[in-house]
């Protein structure tokens, strides 16, 4: 919308559009107050069924960008087959990462 | 002590400050009493009480809500009877005590006692989403969400609607608080020119039923200046009629919605003054 059309139509349509985008986003996050906490528990439960790891050596981060958000899960797994002592313990790393596109157009479509 | 009544608890809330919660509480409380209901209005804004001032009872406050909760005063001692309407009572907020004095148990007991004596308990919520606001809505059967057609007010109303759906007793029982949208400070001519969010815009964004539209008017300011609800002070004015209609809808009557329209006459248009 250019300046001329804003002037002609008044600023209410801009207010309306900004609110719709913002509230669609806020409502989404409101119902998942601790999304990261829930994800952490569920992901760790799945991985714990297959490998042994120290829950303290897990890093889960979510990076929210303007168009793409990234979820990164970094789990340190002790390699037990070769472990003969604490000093020589080998480590493997399991890293997962996922991206979610959260574009403006999707928010708007989701609401209307 | 019990008179066999079972009051309906109404919270007047908004999230944002300055949108007209206290004005609306006074106007609707007085309108309900005028229509024959026995009403108590409670000010939950501990530390910043103002409902007493808007109702013109500021010099008659002896005990307050916190005094009742602390057991310093009995409930009947703290209730102030309105001088104009014998059915209207005020339970003022404390002006000086700290906010922690407002306890969940204390509020529950006060509401339970009032329920047996009144038809309506109208809770005037403080702004924000802190303790005072959550306790004001805690026991509500119905809520009036006061919203100005302006972005920050609409956003905060949306947040409050979320709280009404999660933090109230009714919500925790899996029931739903009846939510009603009251749009205040509406300028028909600004909405018509696309300078202000329209009624339809706000309704579409918040998607809760509309109970009334209160036009911006100098009568509202005049009423608070003299300490009288606008529904008593200027009952035939635009805002008072809108408040009366909203009150009747609250009682379940079917009243067609009047959208305030451009009411500037040719004289006012020529000289650029807006009608009251």
Describe the model:
The complex is a heterodimer of chains A (112) and B (276). Chain A is an alpha+beta fold and 112 residues long. Helix content of chain A is 43%, strand content 28%. Chain A is built from 4 helices and 3 strands. In chain A, helix 2 (12-30) packs across helix 4 (104-111). The two termini of chain A are 19 Å apart. Mean pLDDT of chain A is 71; it is low at 83-89 and 102-112. Chain B is of the alpha/beta class. Chain B contains 14 helices and 8 strands. Chain B has helices at residues 21-34, 51-54, 65-70, 75-78, 104-115, 131-138, 151-164, 169-172, 188-192, 199-206, 218-226, 230-233, 238-250, 266-271; strands at 8-13, 39-43, 80-81, 88-91, 120-124, 142-147, 178-186, 210-215. In chain B, strand 3 (80-81) and strand 4 form a beta hairpin. In chain B, helix 1 (21-34) crosses helix 13. The model of chain B is unreliable at 272-276 (pLDDT under 50). Chain A binds chain B through residues 9-13, 15-16, 18-20, 22-23, 26-27, 30, and chain B through 150-151, 154-155, 158-159, 162, 191, 193-198, 201, 205.
Helix content of chain B: 40-55%
The residue-averaged pLDDT of chain B reads: 92
**Counting H and I runs of at least 4 residues, what is the number of helices of chain B?**
14
**Strand share of the residues of chain B?**
15-25%
- The number of helical elements of chain A comes to 4
Q: What class do helices, strands and sheet pairing of chain B give?
A: alpha/beta
Order of strands across the biggest sheet of chain B?
3-4-2-5-1-6-7-8
Number of strands of chain A: 3
How far is it from the N-terminal to the C-terminal residue of chain B, by CA? 46 Å
Identify the overall geometry of chain A. Answer: elongated
